[in-house]
Amino acid sequence: MPTTLSVNVNAIAGLRNRRDLPWPNVEHFGRIALEAGAHGLTVHPRPDQRHVRFTDLPILRALIDDEFPQAEFNIEGYPSEDFLVLCEKTEPEQVTLVPDDPSQATSDHGWNFRRDRALLEKVVERLKKKGMRVSLFADGDGDAEAVAIARQVGADRIELYTGPYGGCFDQPEKAAEIVEMLGRTADAAMEHGLQVNAGHDLTVANLPALIRRIPALAEVSIGHALTADALEHGMAETVKRFLRACGQKA
Question: Has residue 250 been placed in a domain?
Fold first, then answer.
């Protein structure tokens, strides 16, 4: 199966939130992305609502349900009680759990699966009882034992944290080393029956090498680079560029 693209609209929401005005409209750009062929939308509703607001979630849920029923809604976040209730109300197809401190600017590491095993086991069970697929943010450091724990706590997928790979945009040899390490992590995950997603600082330029190394990569979630490219190419054309980078016709 080809790698699917979920468009993270947090950067669009963050730009909107700079003013007390309704634009850029998150629903509008989500619609453009889905019309252009994106397979889903991703949001990360942080407690301070500095990006996506809680009120955006039912609007995006309705957009998918009413106009793009084949698409998926992916909600990312730290599994606080408030976040879990938000997921239960919104019923996304996928929940991606991240170990973020609320004060972090953005996600920058995966779970410590050994330390956080009991927490994750409880949370994953709760979400899966509601019919949601659960993905756990994971460091792409080749730790086979860690991804085995991810499977043991009941997760369906891991999402490889690709920030270090994106940060090597001007260091091709280092980037190749990191891709190989990400690939080893993905191999171990798939050996344990997990599917593999990836996200953070992925671009049109660096996606092809990642997918060549992990041809069974299920999904990429992309926001920052996609939104930046949309300033130059427009949202619809940018989505098509990223789809082509994923190896799809667009």
Answer: no
In the prediction, which pLDDT does 1 show?
Answer: 80
Distances (CA, A) of 53 to 16, 48, 162, 181, 218: 11, 9, 25, 35, 27
- Candidates 44, 51, 72, 159; catalytic one: 44
- CATH number of domain containing 173: 3.20.20.70
Specify whether 39 is catalytic: no
- Active site residue: 51, 72, 76, 159, which one? 76
- pLDDT score recorded for residue 183: 98
Q: Is 76 designated active site?
A: yes
What is the model's pTM?
A: 0.96
Whether 103 shows a pLDDT value over 80: the answer reads: no
| pLDDT tens per residue, range 13-59 | 999 999 989 999 999 999 999 999 999 999 999 999 999 999 999 99
Q: Is 44 part of the annotated catalytic residue set? A: yes
* Whole-Å CA distances, 100 to 52, 80, 112, 123, 196: 16, 11, 12, 15, 20
Measuring CA to CA, which residue among 159, 139, 158 is closest to residue 150? 158
Q: Which of 51, 72, 159, 200 is catalytic?
A: 200
CB environment 46-82: b (16+ within 10 A), e (fewer): beeeebbbeebbeebbebbeeebeebbbbbbbbbeee
Total domains present in the chain: 1
Nearest Cα neighbor of 141 from 127, 158, 155 is 158
pLDDT in tens, 109-166: 899 999 999 999 999 999 999 999 999 999 999 999 999 999 999 999 999 999 999 9
Instruction: Label residue 44 left, alpha or beta by phi (over 0 means left) and psi (-120 to 50 means alpha).
Output: beta
Range of the domain at 152: 4-245
